[in-house]
Amino acid sequence: MFAWLEQELLDAEAEGGLAFIISHYTPNQCQHQFGSRYRALMERFQSTIRFTLHGHTHTTYYEVVQSYSNPGTPLMLANVAGSVTTYSVQNPSYMIIELDQETMLPVNMYSYALDIERANAEGHPTWELIHDYKEAYGMTDLSPWSMKALSERFLSDADVAAEFTWNQHAQRGSKPTEVDQKGLYCLTSSSEMWEQHECLNTELDGLRSKHGLGFGMWTLQGAADRLVGSWIDVSFQN
C-alpha cells in the first residue's frame, strides 16, 4: 500500500502536480507501524500534498501533521469532516472547503448542520451554516502554524475549547461547560497514535520526542502493536 502511495506521489512530484489525500480513517487511528510511515510520507511530499481529508469519527475537527526531522514544526493540515449520519451525540453535518485557486491550499472551512430536534418538530430538515473556522476562532488563515496555534489556545482558553467541542459535534445540545482541554489539544496537535499518546501521558513542558511514546506491553493497544509487528526501521540517532 505505501509503496503504491509513494510511487503515486513521486509521479505527481515529477510532473509538478499537486495532490489531495482522502481516506476513511484519521491518521492517528492507524496502528503505529502504519501511522509513522504515513506521517513520514507526508513530510517527504509536503510540497506536493496540499492537505488531507478524513472521516470515520463523524465529528468535525483537525489534526496537525508535525515534522519528524524538525520536531515542533507543523507541516500540514489533516481535516476531519463530520457526517450526515444521525447519531445520538451530534447533529448531521457537512463541510464546504474554500481553496486558493493558485496554491490549492485551504483558505477557510465552513460547516453546515441540521438540528435533529428542530427538524422532527417542524417536519422538515433545515440546513444552516453553524460556523466557519476563521470567524469562529478569530483566525487570519488556516496555515499549519495557525492551526497549531489554535490547538495551543485550547490549553489556555476554556471558552475557545468549549466552542470548538460544541462545533465538533455540530452544535448538538448546549455548549459544554467543562472540556478536557489537554485531550483536545493532544487530539488536534498530533497525527500519529504514539505521538498523541505521548502528549496525553507526559507533561507539556517542552518539545515532544520524534517518535512518540509506545503503549505498555500489557495494554490492549500495546498488544495490538506487537501483534502487527514492528516492520518499520526507525533510527533514533538523528
TrEMBL record:
<feature type="domain" description="Sphingomyelin phosphodiesterase C-terminal">
    <location>
        <begin position="85"/>
        <end position="155"/>
    </location>
</feature>
<dbReference type="InterPro" id="IPR045473">
    <property type="entry name" value="ASM_C"/>
</dbReference>
<keyword id="KW-0325">Glycoprotein</keyword>
<keyword id="KW-0378">Hydrolase</keyword>
<dbReference type="InterPro" id="IPR029052">
    <property type="entry name" value="Metallo-depent_PP-like"/>
</dbReference>
<dbReference type="Pfam" id="PF19272">
    <property type="entry name" value="ASMase_C"/>
</dbReference>
<dbReference type="GO" id="GO:0016787">
    <property type="term" value="F:hydrolase activity"/>
</dbReference>
<protein>
    <recommendedName>
        <fullName>Sphingomyelin phosphodiesterase C-terminal domain-containing protein</fullName>
    </recommendedName>
</protein>
